[in-house]
DUF1926 domain-containing protein (Blastopirellula sediminis), 723 residues
Amino acid sequence: MSNSIRLCLVLHNHQPIGNFDGVFEQAYQDSYLPFLDVFDRFSDAIKIGLHTSGPLMEWLDIHHPEYLDRLAAHVRAGRIEIIGGVFYEAILTMIPGRDRVGQIRSYTQWLENRLGATIGGMWMPERVWEQQLTSDIADAGIRYTLLDDFHFKNAGVQQDKLYGYYVTEEAGQVLSIFPGSERMRYLLPFAEPQETIDYLRGIAENHPNSVVVFGDDGEKFGTWPDTKAHVYDRGWLHNFFTALEQNQDWLHTTTLAEAVDSLPPVGKVFLPEGSYREMTEWVLPVPQQVAYEDLVHELEHEPNWPRIKQFVRGGYWRNFKIRYPETDEMYSRMMAVSKRLDLARRKSGADQHLLDYAQTELYRGQCNCSYWHGAFGGVYLPHLRNAVYNHLIAADNIIDSAIGQPGSFIDAEAADFNFDARQEVKLVDEKLLALFAPSQGGMMYELDVRTICHNLLATLTRRPEAYHRKVLAGPSSAGGEVASIHDRVVFKQAGLDERLQYDSYARKSLVDHFFDNDVPAPLVANGEAQERGDFVHGAYEAKIRRNPDRIQVQMSREGNAWGVPLKITKGITLSAGSSTLELAYLIEGVPQDQPMHFAVEMNFAGLPSGADDRFFHQGDDRLGQLGQRLDLHQTTTLGMIDEWLGVDVRWEADQPTSVWTFPIETVSQSEGGFELVHQSVVMMPHWWIQGDKEGRWSVTMKLEIDTSLAESRMPSQEVAATT
């Protein structure tokens, strides 16, 4: 065949920070290792580009260095081009420019040192693009990257102009960009190899001397459901490589570097912000997402759909921070640590070696997977959220050491910590860091236990998802075929349709409720109890009261319950060197002749259910695992122990009360199917209050965070670093 084309196959292998060690190992055995084994059996005519994310690369270097040695050999032979990128796979648009350049440069150096690679290109995490990224990427030493053809089509580039690469420019900096083929993403590895060959042959006949790029997840080749048997046991990958070899007279597999060095660009382009098509759909608010899906299904069989489709697109990636405020909380915390590190770098006498360590922890806390949600668990996976906070808190602790922060201190600050043009309040000592949102019900939305680098309020609110329609419709089957991850409907547990429950407020702590006097506990747990007051979402006024060794955040609000005017004042006090929060409530205007049902909700995240070493207790008495629904009366104490984490969270009140506990669980989508995920434990003391002769009612509670078990297992130098 006289007409020939170049095919660039680029794999993206990734496991996020915080994923379980067993998941890394399983992906290695199911995808990364067998792919390389098959690849080794073919000639030099087969070349690929390979991007392996930093978290996975570091894990491989520790657990399977022989795999990296094999990669290095292929790099020397010119068969594998190592694609660089952001060391810890951060979405570039959500981190400061200094961290963009720093992450890319540091990963390039790591790859050059370990694999002997020359890094010219980078993988764009989740293909999230904004034009201003161009200059930072170029400053970091990158010459080219790849995005989806969807980006180019949104810029008005027609399909017949997508068989090559383009250059773009920002502030005088130039970057080459390849359009990855969406059609190829759906062909590989789900279609038979001959179908892909036929598709490429058609391009060669109509667009000779062009370049076609496939860029997608390496986990599609073995880790995604049902793909291991398909790709390896039934020989799909072997057959695909065989087909490439058999057609090498016109179909040449090549690397991105070779394509850039051998061919001129098709032209210049400026791309609008975006990601791959599915991502832009997932970020839409649920009503719009449902309407979008319905519209596509309605029109996709219409004759004019191909003409219409090019003008249809979804939303803007940054709005994941609106869809999931919990990701905005992580983002805001990350930005605070990044800014603090930057200031510490300029501080005279700061330990720069320690700050390098803090920088690595910050970079790890920028890993993107828990900052969004689509076909995979993402933000719904507690262990990923916990890992982000673990690294951010660790970075904060290390900065303290690097700048010579006193071993015992206490401080408070009011500022706009989450960039919403409203004041939040921070209360911090060497053991705890608490963040409060007076404008959002006076809730406490972050509680960092600094000694173990854990945020007890890395919670998640139950909310509707567009795919919950599939949950209600029930599971489906692919009829024996290997289905794309976007098409499978599999239930990992039975009865998930009955577990769809939604919250009307954030599941945080110090959330102030007024319920009906006889409200059933299950109604409260399901998020269906009617709110009789206006304090949950109402704005509180805040002030900080300071003593040399004690600081109090005091918040107050004049509102009502059942139409009765009330004023709630709550004070949260922290003493220097303490890991105990004192929580004092005063309610004024309380009727003397009728009881009011008042409750204070506290959520605790990262304390999973379903394990015997995580349990409720009162002193030495165990009351069941942390998923247990308790209904206690006339009690003044309750504790929660997580022996694996090494923490005991103990609540105490100065007057007997009733306490409900229940788990918060979500029904979410993952690569393995729909699943029930434990998000937090609710501890809710509640009272039927009546006013004294002055119409006042008060209670004082304590929340003690005991990490002595965890500290007993730490090397002495690690305890010193965290405190």
